[in-house]
């Protein structure tokens, strides 16, 4: 069976509201063939484009076409992909997944993890949100690249992105989905520790990369509405110890790419309250 091993870090995976039998993935071969067929089709299309035109418009050609996002609205991982697509001005089709009953398309396009977000560009699936952000940046460098152009800047941005996913996200899960008072207390402390480190990294700059909005702003941007949920459930004030991070979040949330992409904080808090109730946590 595919994807059994990697199910620990997920938004809803902590408590299964509805236990559904996971489907076997009998059609992994079909998935691979599907990719192969598309590749052949694309090659076929390309050889009919005159070489001069192909070279001059190669950047545009790569980013054009059909973009489909398999997603789940409260997800910080999905949110960051939506923000990136909006920042780049890419039109895409949003498809909300029912996570307890994942679509056949999700299971087929992400057979390893069976998780959202999956971005499907011209039939080719890209999985894992950080990987998706880099793909978007690679094929659509306009209006400006998200990742810094220098090697050190890139390495630093990727380090903090990894920290956000391995530390902040995991600690935040404890605050939102705690099963005991002890877990909540632990989560609160860890969230604040993580944010204090990010406060130092941000310093007085408007954005993590400096004056310009970039990659790390997108990565952490997916958490902006969750900050309010952490405050509500943890009874903490992020702005008290991390005023720059909170001001950064507000600055980002004023951007159209954020208002179009993020679930509003009040709705997200309602979602957590209701899901906790349904899951018997409260
Ligand atoms: N590392 C992944 C994490 C994605 C993830 O955890 N997605 C969750 C929703 S937030 C999911 O699809 N969970 C379904 C499951 O675990 O069954 C990424 O960055 O894309």
Would you summarize the structure shown here?
With 282 residues, the protein is α+β, with helices and mostly antiparallel strands. Helices cover 58% and strands 6% of the residues. Strands 2-1-3-4 form a four-stranded mixed β-sheet, covered by helices on one side.
* Helicity range: 55-70%
How many whole angstroms does the radius of gyration measure? 20 Å
CATH T-level topology of the largest domain: Glutathione S-transferase Yfyf (Class Pi), Chain A, domain 2
Terminal CA distance reads 33 Å
Give the number of DSSP strands: 4
N-to-C SSE string, H for helix and E for strand: HHHEHEHEEHHHHHHHHH
Shape: globular
Unreliable stretches: 1-10, 13-60
Give a verbal description of the structure.
The protein is an alpha+beta fold and 282 residues long. The chain contains 14 helices and four strands. It has helices spanning 28-47, 51-56, 58-63, 76-88, 104-109, 129-139, 151-176, 181-202, 215-221, 224-234, 238-241, 243-253, 256-261, 265-278, and strands at residues 67-71, 93-96, 118-121, 124-127. Strands 2-1-3-4 form a four-stranded mixed sheet, with helices on one face. The chain is globular and about 50 Å long. It binds glutathione (GSH).
